[in-house]
Structure formats: structure tokens, C-alpha cells
Specification:
The complex is a heterodimer. By secondary structure, chain A is mainly alpha-helical. Chain A has four helices and two strands, in the order H-E-H-H-H-E. Chain A is rod-shaped and about 85 Å long. By secondary structure, chain B is of the alpha+beta class. Chain B has an eight-stranded mixed β-sheet with strand order 16-15-14-13-12-11-24-25. In chain B, strand 13, helix 23 and strand 14 form a beta-alpha-beta unit. In chain B, helix 7 packs across helix 19, helix 13 runs antiparallel to helix 17 and helix 21 runs antiparallel to helix 22. About 1% of the residues of chain B have low confidence. Chains A and B meet through helix 3 of A and strand 6 and strand 8 of B.
């Protein structure tokens, strides 16, 4: 094959390869909210929430208010959206709560 | 057939003029808003008419008109093309409130960007959920994720994450750029914080272009490599300069680059693209002589690089310009660089017309145009003059002054070439090129000298042409930039080469890479030697105000003068038969005009408002913090507090070397900008009411940027780091520091100032030791209270008269202050609360506001409407707010 033709076919092959690999194969599922706990934070009352370690009346009140304004928590992790709840506090209560 | 009369002269830079017409169209689009169909009609008719009467000179005019209306049309289309579900529309129209918790779903764009504290994610949003309602949305948001663990996200990952999005104005002061405008320029609709990685849900993966993802991954890998193997400063500079991530630069380093006028080297811009493109071209040219292959390889590498480093607008601009220039070169055409520049500008403005108003666009364009239109042609002409020997095209020596001819010959005369040429010539002769030339001609010394002088000429011309831009946008002049650019440019090129070689070597083994990295570190130390020395030289780099209002016409005038100079340079023909007389006159006139206008711009006479017999106080919007500018009737100025850090945080004192990120500080970006906007380069008095960061932090920047006559404070709390820093800054700027105490009185420009607090030797908290000033002018009186609380209020009310017309509410309207007794005793007409739109402490507290309101006082906060300005002539009181 003449050098020029070899060069041309290499370029064509390269372009074909590059355009072919344009889709991802893996599909990672949404993170699973394993319901290991017993307290459903979407239906709990202030009193029940206050029983959780590290949760006082003010925090319980914020949780209820947030729930009313923004709807039920889809996952336990969404408790972190409350301004008063830090990652450390959440780690303490993670095993005790569920959302459904 | 009768001969058609062709136009006598074709322009060599037609596209440059067309791009200019298009830009004009965009610029005037807001002034003359014609409906789109009209614009299309005008463009169409003008174009058709121009083609029909193509030999008539009026055709050129019609083409201009056509392109002007095309420009206006493009601008109009861009505004109308904003999709109705864009996030920025949702927030701007109030459908969703800024600061409300929301949930966003969208695809990650680019790899998460590493920063010292966490990661920055850019998301192309597809869905937005707010208050139980999910809606489809579009637009880009930038989210910050705390924590140093790398999130399992790549370009194309679709995630769903709860966050709080912010899109609102902040720091509303005249002279300070609107935050919404800044977001728009970055094409970001809103910003937010992701509180924890636990909140991120991976919902799926979009199909993406794998090679792009690969490049992004390599970039992240290289960033990590550099962080591990180079010194902190060297890695920060390399990562910023080569890879477009400026988060690792610390403030002292970044400020040193700014002062030396070389900050643009840290930002990926045309300079880098040109270097990289040129370097790749050089390598490719050694491998193949086939121009199409050269072009494809170089542009592929260049565009891959541009996308790898984030594809921000400045990088794309540079890549477009380089691609077009390269295409011109490789198509065997001698393209006038201005023509290529014009085409690049046209392409960019067609892509996004609003870029015309982007300061970054102006900076890039002016710097490249100054090189293409002035520096390069000048160097080429000097080369022609220096290399001249008699030839059929140029039989006569250049008609230039002897000193110029001799100088050019020193740099460019090649005696060896002359001698060789002589051997093949029919005639012989001697040529007199100066006595000291025969030794230096043709040697390496001449080559180095020539390159250095060329570099200085380019640097000088770029600095001169950029003068109006650096004054207006940065309020800074760095004369040392001329030399610093050359030095740092060379060293950073060497350092980049070493770092890249270390990178390649590390593929082989770590030990082989170590010496390269060590040398790169050494280069870093060398890099900042010269700027460090020059920075301390007086008068070399300084800050200055820009004229605003009508006087600001001086800056476009300066640009016009440089353009006139460029035109003269093009017309200058040293080997022509006769110089047009007017050319010399215009040339001299443009030089004189530039020096005159430049002098006015640099020394800015009469930039600050003259004494007008009024006392004026501007309460600035510095977010959480205080800052007020008092202008006295005789023109003197006093700055009471300077605001604080953007993220209210105590200065960290523990740790071996605290990393101070190069974040914009309020003292620099708000208070200083306001003062420059008012035309001041000098502040007579700097008052630090107390040593809380949100009052004293900004004063340090102001002390460095302005010449201060005297600094005043209350109690010297040297144990607090913020005050100690303030004191040391005052000392290093040679500003005398005085301590004030209750009972002192003085007079400035007819206004009487009485100090009511702190009381000498009283043992109180920091807040209660705030300096309290009572300023009286004629019948009007103003009370500036700092952060005093109950104790101080009580003693002040007991010991002095606090009755005033305007009171700055103490402690941002907190319930620790504004006791009923104080409110009653002060009984002002107006109470100003300096507090941000959203205070993390809940300031101003509702009960405090009620207390003032029930006293019959009008309460104004700076957060809502921006700067509050009160002024009086001693009798009447007038008040206005920036945005209301």
C-alpha cells in the first residue's frame, strides 16, 4: 500500500474509533437507603425525635418544621439538610432511623 | 466594453473592519433597540445593495451598515435565547428564593475540581425540586463539597443532591461589580454548598465522549502528582499556570504576582496557548513537512488541552485565535495578524455576543492587538533598518535618524551574511556599520541582546496599550511589569519544562523524577526574586483611582491615540522615496498625546470630589461588618472600620504555616473599590473602632492601597491577632497610630468630632471598648457607635449628650445593644444598620428594629438596598440609597 494511503486509512480508523467509544457501559444505581432503624423520621413526633441522642427540643422542632415546608425525607441522610445537624451528630443516630 | 472602475485600494485587513462593525452593532444594541425583523431587513438589504453596486465605494459603507445591524441582531438573539426554565430566571423572578433549601438533579460537567478544603462541582441541572414541587430546569450551578475525600463522581455522572442555592446581589456599593453580573460572565446560574458527601445520590451516567473523560482524569492525576512532588508554592504556580486550577495559590504569592503586573501568567490565557501551540508545532514540524497534518495535530492537541483545563471563555478565545492564525500560516497565505485577530474576534462574538462587555475579553484583545498591530510591525521594521545593505529593492539607505540606524545595526547587522553575499556579487564595496559592530556582529552576544531588546519592546508596548485597562479594571499600575514579564516568562517556561519532564520520568520511576522536581522547585525560588526586589522599590507599583463620569472619556481617548500610533506605524516606510509630511506630524502628535493623557491618567488630578461644604457619610454594604466613609466639608476623608472577611472566621493562629487562600477580601474588593470609584487615592484618617475581624480586617487592605495620614483606634488589644496585624501593617506603611479615649475633641473642616468611648482604664469587653464618635456639623449631628453593648451605652448616655439626627445602630442591630434608654436619648431621625442581606447571627434582631421604629425613627439596612448615603450642609439632611 502506498504510504499516503496508509496514512489516510490510519486517520480514518482513528476517527472511527474515537466516535465509537461515546457511551458509558456502567450504570450505578441510586444509593440505597437501607432501613435499618426503627424510628420513622417522616412520621415521628417531637417527643419521639427528642429521644434520639444529641437531639434536643430545638433540633426536633427544626426537623418538624423542615418536614412541613419541604416534604418528607426521601433518605435518612437528608436529615443533614437541617442546619443544626452535623455529620458527627448524624453518625450517632444513623442506625436508629428510617424513612419508610 | 467600458472598463469598470475598480476601487483604488483594497484593505489588507478587511475582516478586522468587519469585526469592528459587528462589535459596534453589539455595543449599540442596547441604545437603539430595533425589533429583530427590522435588523434582519436592514442587514439583508444592505448586503444585497452592496453586492449589486460592488464597484462603488459606497458598497463598503453598506457592508458596514449590514454588519452593524447583524451585530445588534446577534445581541438580541442571545438575550432572547435564555430558556424559560433557566435557574437564573427562576431565582431572579422570585419563584424560588435564594437561600432556600432545594434539591437539584443534573450531570456533572468536567471532573470535580480539587481545592485545599474540598471539591468544586459544576452541574448541568435538569431538575430542581423546591418545597415539594419538582420542576424541570436548566442552567449550570457550581457546588462546593466540603471534605478532602474524592467523591466517586466523574464527568457525565448524573447525581441528585440536596443543597442550598444562592443567587442574589451582595455588596451593593457604587464602584463594586454586581455579583449577578459576575455569575453571568462565568455562565453560572447559582452557587451552593453540599454539606456532606453522604447527601450525594448517583442516579445514572450520561453518555460522554470517552477521550474527553480520559483527558480530564489525566489532568486530575497530574494535579495530584504535582501536589505530592513539588513544594507548595511551586505546585500552586504550576497547577494554576499549566492546568487552570488556581485554588492552591496562597494570598501572598498571588499578591506578589499582582503587584508585579504578571498575574496573567497564573491564569491560562493566550500566552499559554501560544507557547503550548508553538511548542507542539515545533515538534511536529520536525516529524513531518505536510502542512495539513501539522495543522490537524497541533489544533487537536490545543483543543484537547483547552477542554481539559475547563474550557473557560478566555481559553477558548485564545484557542480560536491560535487556530485561525495557524490556518492562515499553513494555507500558504501571508495573513496579516490583524486580519486573523479580526476573524477570531468575529467568531467569538458570533458565539457569544455578550463577551464584548467582558473585561477579560478586552484585556485579551487589547494585549494581542497591541502585539499584532504595533510591537511586531515595529520590530520587523527595525530589523529591516538594521539589516539593510544595497539591493535592487532597496538601493538607498533608510531615511531615519543616525542614532536609530546605528542602534538597529547593532542588534541586527549580520556582517558574515554581507561578506558571503559580496563574494557572489558582481560589484564590491565597503559598508560602514559602526566601529564597535565588527566584534559583536554575528555572535551569540548580539543574538541575546537582540532578543532581550525585542522582549523589552514588546513588553513596553503591551504595558503602554494596556494602561487604560489596568487602571480602570484593576486600579493598579505596575511599571516593573515591563521587566517582570520577561523574567518570569522565561523562568516559568523553564520550570514548566522541568515539571513536565519530571512527570514523564515518573512513569519510569520515582527516583528518576526527583531531580527534575527539585530543579523545578529551585526555579520557583528564582522566579520571585526579581519581583520581590522590585516590589519594594518606591513608586514602581501602586494603586490609583479611575475617573468616573464624564472625565472617564480619557481612557477611550488613550486607546484611540494608540490606534493612531499603530496606523502611523503601518504607513511608515523607511525605504520609501518620500515620507508624507502629515505622517510625521500625526506620529509626533500621537506620542505627545499619549504622554499627556497617560500622565493625567496616572497622576489623576482632580479625580476626587473637591470640598463642597457638605458633610457626607457613606455607610457601605460590606455584608456582616461595618464600614463608613466620612467626607468632611473641606474634602478630608475618614474611614471608620473596613469590613471583614467574606467568611466570618477568627484568624487561625495555630499550625506551623496557615494557608491563606487567595480569596477576595472585602477591604480590597469592596471598600477600596468604593474609595477608588469616588476618586480617592488618599484617606486622611483610618479609624478602627475595635479589634473584631468584621471591623478591622478590611482596614489592612485599605492601609496598603491608599496613603493614610493617621490611624486611630480605641484600646490597643495587641493580644488579639487581628489588632496585632493592623498595628504591624500601620507600622510598615509608616502610618502613625493614635489611641482615642472619651473626652477628646477635635475639628475637621468645620465639623466637630467628640469621642464618647472608650473610657480610659475601664475594664470592658472588646465590643464595649469600641470607639464612639459624635460628629456635628452646623445643626446636624451623626453618631457612629461601633459594636457597643448595654454597659457602654449606659455609661455614654450618663456622661454625654447622644442626641443625634443619624445613628449607626450599634452591633448590627443585635439585642445586646440598642437599649431603650439609649434609643430614647439618641432619638434620631434615621437609624442605619450595617448588616448583610443574610446574617448568620440573625442581625438585626426584630425586637431591636421595633424599638427604633416605635421611637419614630426610620430604619435602613445596608444589606437590602446597598450603600446608604447621608449628607448635610449643616442645615438640611438628605439621604439616599444605592439601590432603592
Amino acid at each position: 500500500m502506498k504510504p499516503r494511503r496508509a496514512a489516510h486509512s490510519t486517520v480514518v480508523l482513528l476517527i472511527a474509533m474515537l466516535s465509537a467509544c461515546s457511551s458509558r457501559v456502567e450504570y450505578l444505581p441510586a444509593a440505597n437507603n437501607a432501613s435499618t432503624g426503627t424510628l420513622n423520621i417522616n412520621t415521628a413526633t417531637v417527643a419521639e425525635l427528642e429521644k434520639l441522642p444529641g437531639v434536643g427540643p430545638k433540633t426536633a422542632d427544626s426537623i418538624i418544621r423542615f418536614r412541613d415546608e419541604h416534604g418528607p425525607f426521601r433518605r435518612p441522610e437528608h436529615l443533614l439538610r437541617i442546619p443544626g445537624i452535623s455529620e458527627a451528630r448524624f453518625a450517632e443516630i444513623r442506625a436508629l432511623i428510617k424513612t419508610e | 466594453m467600458t472598463a469598470e472602475r475598480l476601487p483604488e485600494k483594497f484593505s489588507t485587513i478587511p475582516i478586522f473592519w468587519i469585526a469592528g462593525a459587528f462589535s459596534l452593532g453589539i455595543a449599540v444594541a442596547s441604545l437603539f433597540s430595533l425589533p429583530s425583523p427590522w435588523l434582519i431587513a436592514i442587514a439583508g438589504v444592505a448586503g444585497a445593495a452592496a453586492v449589486t453596486i460592488r464597484t462603488n465605494p459606497i458598497a463598503a459603507l453598506l457592508i458596514f451598515v449590514g454588519f452593524i445591524s447583524a451585530g445588534s441582531l446577534a445581541h438580541r438573539l442571545e438575550i432572547e435565547s435564555v430558556a424559560p426554565d433557566r435557574i437564573k430566571l427562576l431565582y431572579d423572578s422570585g419563584v424560588i428564593a435564594s437561600g432556600d433549601p432545594v434539591e437539584v438533579e443534573g450531570g456533572v460537567r468536567g471532573a470535580p475540581e480539587l481545592t485545599p478544603d474540598g471539591y468544586v462541582l459544576t452541574l448541568n441541572v435538569t431538575k430542581l425540586t423546591s418545597r415539594r414541587l419538582e420542576r424541570s430546569a436548566s442552567g449550570r450551578v457550581r457546588l462546593f463539597l466540603n471534605g478532602t475525600e474524592q467523591p466517586p463522581l466523574q464527568h457525565g455522572t448524573v447525581i441528585r443532591v440536596p443543597t442550598v442555592l444562592h443567587r442574589e446581589e451582595a455588596y451593593l456599593n457604587p464602584g463594586v461589580e454586581s455579583r449577578l453580573a459576575i455569575l453571568d460572565r462565568m455562565s453560572i446560574d447559582a452557587t451552593g454548598v453540599i454539606k456532606s458527601p453522604l447527601l450525594i445520590e448517583v442516579v445514572g451516567e450520561q453518555s460522554i465522549f470517552l477521550p474527553y473523560a480520559f483527558i480530564l482524569e489525566q489532568r486530575s492525576r497530574i494535579i495530584r502528582e504535582f501536589r505530592e512532588n513539588l513544594s507548595p508554592q511551586a505546585s500552586a504556580v504550576m497547577i494554576a499556570s499549566l492546568l487552570g486550577n488556581d485554588h492552591f495559590l496562597d494570598k501572598p504569592t498571588a499578591d506578589l504576582f499582582r503587584e508585579s503586573g504578571t498575574y496573567h501568567i497564573l491564569v491560562i490565557s493566550g500566552l499559554h496557548i501560544t507557547f503550548i501551540g508553538g511548542f507542539v508545532l515545533w515538534i511536529v514540524m520536525m516529524c513531518t513537512r505536510r502542512r495539513p497534518i501539522q495543522f490537524i495535530v497541533v489544533t487537536s492537541v490545543l483543543w484537547a488541552y483547552s477542554f481539559a483545563v475547563g474550557a473557560e471563555a478566555p481559553v477558548i478565545r485564545a484557542a480560536i485565535t491560535f487556530t485561525i492564525v495557524l490556518a492562515g500560516m499553513l494555507l500558504y497565505r501571508r495573513s496579516d495578524p490583524l486580519n486573523s485577530l479580526g476573524l477570531a474576534a468575529l467568531v467569538m462574538l458570533l458565539w457569544r455576543p455578550s463577551q464584548l462587555f467582558d473585561p477579560s475579553f478586552h484585556l485579551t484583545f487589547v494585549s494581542v492587538a497591541s502585539i499584532a498591530a504595533i510591537a511586531l510591525p515595529l520590530i520587523l521594521k527595525l530589523q529591516e533598518i538594521g539589516e539593510w545593505s544595497p539591493s535592487p529593492e532597496k538601493p538607498f539607505p533608510p531615511r531615519v535618524p543616525a542614532w536609530l540606524a546605528r542602534t538597529c545595526e547593532t542588534f541586527y547587522w549580520n556582517h558574515t551574511a554581507w561578506a558571503i553575499g559580496q563574494r557572489s556579487d558582481v560589484w564590491t564595496g565597503t559598508i560602514d556599520k559602526g566601529p564597535w559592530l565588527s566584534r559583536t556582529a554575528g555572535t551569540t552576544a548580539q543574538f541575546l541582546l537582540r532578543r532581550t531588546v525585542e522582549g523589552i519592546i514588546v513588553s513596553l508596548i503591551v504595558t503602554a496599550c494596556m494602561l487604560p485597562l489596568t487602571i480602570v479594571y484593576f486600579h493598579r499600575i505596575s511599571l516593573s511589569a515591563i521587566v517582570n514579564n520577561l523574567w518570569i516568562g522565561i523562568v516559568i517556561a523553564v520550570q514548566s519544562a522541568l515539571a513536565l519532564m519530571g512527570l514523564f520520568a515518573s512513569i519510569v520511576s520515582e527516583t528518576v523524577a526527583t531531580p527534575f522536581y527539585a530543579l523545578a522547585d529551585a526555579a520557583q525560588n528564582a522566579m520571585l526574586l526579581l519581583p520581590g526586589v522590585l516590589a519594594n522599590a518606591p513608586g514602581v507599583s501602586f494603586r490609583l483611582p479611575a475617573y468616573s463620569g464624564n472625565a472617564s472619556v480619557i481612557y477611550p481617548l488613550l486607546i484611540a491615540v494608540t490606534m493612531a500610533f499603530a496606523v502611523c506605524l503601518r504607513e511608515w516606510k523607511p525605504f520609501g522615496i518620500k515620507t508624507a509630511g502629515h505622517l510625521r506630524r500625526v506620529f509626533n502628535a500621537s506620542i505627545v498625546a499619549f504622554l499627556l493623557l497617560g500622565g493625567i491618567a496616572i497622576f489623576h488630578p482632580f479625580s476626587s470630589p473637591g470640598p463642597d461644604g457638605r458633610l457626607r457619610i457613606d455607610f457601605l454594604d460590606v455584608g456582616q461588618g461595618d464600614s463608613a466613609v466620612v467626607t468632611f466639608p473641606n474634602g478630608e476623608t475618614m474611614l471608620i472600620d473596613g469590613g471583614g472577611r467574606r467568611n466570618y472566621r477568627e484568624a487561625e493562629t495555630e499550625g506551623a504555616e496557615p494557608f491563606e487562600p487567595d480569596a477576595p477580601s472585602i477591604g480590597e474588593r469592596v471598600v477600596s473599590e468604593f474609595l477608588w470609584h469616588r476618586g480617592f487615592s488618599r484617606v486622611d484618617y483610618l479609624v478602627a473602632t475595635h479589634s473584631d475581624a468584621d471591623h478591622i480586617d478590611g482596614l489592612k487592605d485599605v492601609a496598603g492601597n491608599f496613603s493614610i495620614r493617621r490611624a486611630l483606634a480605641g484600646v490597643a488589644e495587641d493580644t488579639r491577632p487581628d489588632f496585632a496585624e493592623f498595628r504591624s501593617v500601620a507600622a510598615s506603611e509608616a502610618i502613625p497610630l493614635e489611641l482615642l479615649s472619651a473626652g477628646q475633641r477635635f475639628e475637621i473642616g468645620g465639623a466637630a468630632i467628640e469621642i464618647l468611648n472608650p473610657i480610659v482604664d475601664a475594664v470592658t469587653s472588646t465590643n464595649d471598648s469600641s470607639v464612639v464618635l459624635r460628629i456635628t456639623y452646623g445643626k446636624r449631628c451623626f453618631l457612629m457607635t461601633g459594636d457597643i453593648e448595654r454597659e457602654a451605652e449606659r455609661s455614654i448616655v450618663a456622661n454625654s449628650n447622644v442626641r443625634c439626627d443619624v445613628v449607626k445602630v450599634p452591633h448590627h442591630g443585635s439585642r445586646t445593644s440598642s437599649t431603650p434608654e439609649f434609643v430614647e436619648a439618641a432619638n434620631p431621625e434615621i437609624a442605619v444598620v450595617p448588616v448583610g442581606r443574610r446574617s448568620q447571627f440573625g442581625h438585626p434582631h426584630a425586637e431591636v428594629v421595633d424599638r427604633w421604629l416605635s421611637n419614630g425613627t426610620r430604619v435602613i439596612t445596608t444589606g437590602e438596598g446597598g450603600t446608604v448615603t447621608v449628607s448635610t450642609d449643616g442645615k438640611e439632611l438628605s439621604i439616599s440609597q444605592f439601590r432603592k
